[in-house]
């Protein structure tokens, strides 16, 4: 995607928040020009953000995407080359233009995004060159429309080459193709999703595993992370976090990372549930935070780092990304990120042991 980002002062654009839902709206006055602090153009999109993140972390990185034959594509290819990302698997479509988005950043900088997906939607099985999958790590960003139909084939090709498979699927893919997605979990090693995406999976999981589930027994005065206390709500169904993670693991995936914005992030592996709070930072824009979290966690798992280290590294890298208006300026290089992970003891890791009927508290805080 080519992102055009408009930064608007909060007093120049109205915001309406719903009282009974976690939803708010930016209101644009019809027929009126709204003054912006500035307007920028950047390279973006999940695959581009991820490839830049992995390249900066020291990986030999290639990208497989579909672009148009236009100036947007030329801009993206130059940006990728500058970051040391190989574009040998890029496909150029003669008819469809390259994807683009317009981002309105105001108030708490949780931006509103207008998206034109263009050639992004037109990936076909013939575009999936077999040799592109002969790598250590295959990271699959969100796919939509016809491209999403290729998802099982992409996973199959990756596993056939013995790659570690990491997936950061979008909410539309999980909502419309949840059955196909859940069937592919047996070949997915790392699944990274946010709360909204997780809730899109709830109806399909409830159909197989039932509603509700165990909740964590808390010690007197212990305050659970908000999402652990609340659980997931999707399609009129409720599912506790322990039940949600257990269901995904039973379908085959090894690691599940679930992010909740300022509410922090969870990672589950087997019978272990780990939580890391969000890092303190000044937020310029939340766009790209999820890509930073997922790609950094996958990178550290590929490097055989412990999951608590991987989660802390992902949290720190994402906090650096949201300090900038675009999705890539804040992405850290490996040496600098390692130093921050080793020096940062304020991110208090909490860990629980999951059991079939309950979660047993193993320890409440681990300082790094």
Automatic annotation (TrEMBL):
<dbReference type="GO" id="GO:0004747">
    <property type="term" value="F:ribokinase activity"/>
</dbReference>
<dbReference type="InterPro" id="IPR002173">
    <property type="entry name" value="Carboh/pur_kinase_PfkB_CS"/>
</dbReference>
<feature type="domain" description="Carbohydrate kinase PfkB">
    <location>
        <begin position="30"/>
        <end position="202"/>
    </location>
</feature>
<protein>
    <submittedName>
        <fullName>Ribokinase</fullName>
        <ecNumber>2.7.1.15</ecNumber>
    </submittedName>
</protein>
<feature type="domain" description="Carbohydrate kinase PfkB">
    <location>
        <begin position="246"/>
        <end position="330"/>
    </location>
</feature>
<dbReference type="GO" id="GO:0005829">
    <property type="term" value="C:cytosol"/>
</dbReference>
<dbReference type="InterPro" id="IPR029056">
    <property type="entry name" value="Ribokinase-like"/>
</dbReference>
<dbReference type="InterPro" id="IPR011611">
    <property type="entry name" value="PfkB_dom"/>
</dbReference>
<keyword id="KW-0418">Kinase</keyword>
<keyword id="KW-0808">Transferase</keyword>
<dbReference type="Pfam" id="PF00294">
    <property type="entry name" value="PfkB"/>
</dbReference>
């Amino acid at each position: 995607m080519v992102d055009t980002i408009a930064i608007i002062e909060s007093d120049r654009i109205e915001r309406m928040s719903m009282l009974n839902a976690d939803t708010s709206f930016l209101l644009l006055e019809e027929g009126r020009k709204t003054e912006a602090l500035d307007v920028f153009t950047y390279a973006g999109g999940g695959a581009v953000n991820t490839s830049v993140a992995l390249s900066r972390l020291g990986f030999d990185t290639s990208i497989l995407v579909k672009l148009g034959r236009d100036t947007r594509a030329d801009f993206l290819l130059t940006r990728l080359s500058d970051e040391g990302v190989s574009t040998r698997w890029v496909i150029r479509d003669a008819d469809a233009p390259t994807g683009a988005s317009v981002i309105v950043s105001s108030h708490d900088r949780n931006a509103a995004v207008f998206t034109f997906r263009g050639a992004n939607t037109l990936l076909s099985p013939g575009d999936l060159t077999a040799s592109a999958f002969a790598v250590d790590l295959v990271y699959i960003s969100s796919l939509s429309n016809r491209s999403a139909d290729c998802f099982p084939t992409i996973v199959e090709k990756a596993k056939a080459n013995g790659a570690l498979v990491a997936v950061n699927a979008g909410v539309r893919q999980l909502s419309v193709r949840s059955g196909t997605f859940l069937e592919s979990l047996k070949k997915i090693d790392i699944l990274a999703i946010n709360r909204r995406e997780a809730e899109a999976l709830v109806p399909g999981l409830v159909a197989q595993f039932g509603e509700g589930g165990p909740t964590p027994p808390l010690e007197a005065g212990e305050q659970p992370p908000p999402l652990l206390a609340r659980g997931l709500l999707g399609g009129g169904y409720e599912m506790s976090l322990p039940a949600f993670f257990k269901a995904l693991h039973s379908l085959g995936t090894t690691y599940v990372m679930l992010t909740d914005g300022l509410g922090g992030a969870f990672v589950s592996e087997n019978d272990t549930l780990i939580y890391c709070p969000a890092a303190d930072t000044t937020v310029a824009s939340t766009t790209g935070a999820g890509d930073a979290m997922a790609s950094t966690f996958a990178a550290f798992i590929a490097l055989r780092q412990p999951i608590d280290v991987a989660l802390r590294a992902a949290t720190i890298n994402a906090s650096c990304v949201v300090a900038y208006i675009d999705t890539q300026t804040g992405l850290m290089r490996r040496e600098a990120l390692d130093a921050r992970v080793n020096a940062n003891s304020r991110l208090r890791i909490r860990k629980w042991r999951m059991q079939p009927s309950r979660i047993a508290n193993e320890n409440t805080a681990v300082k790094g």
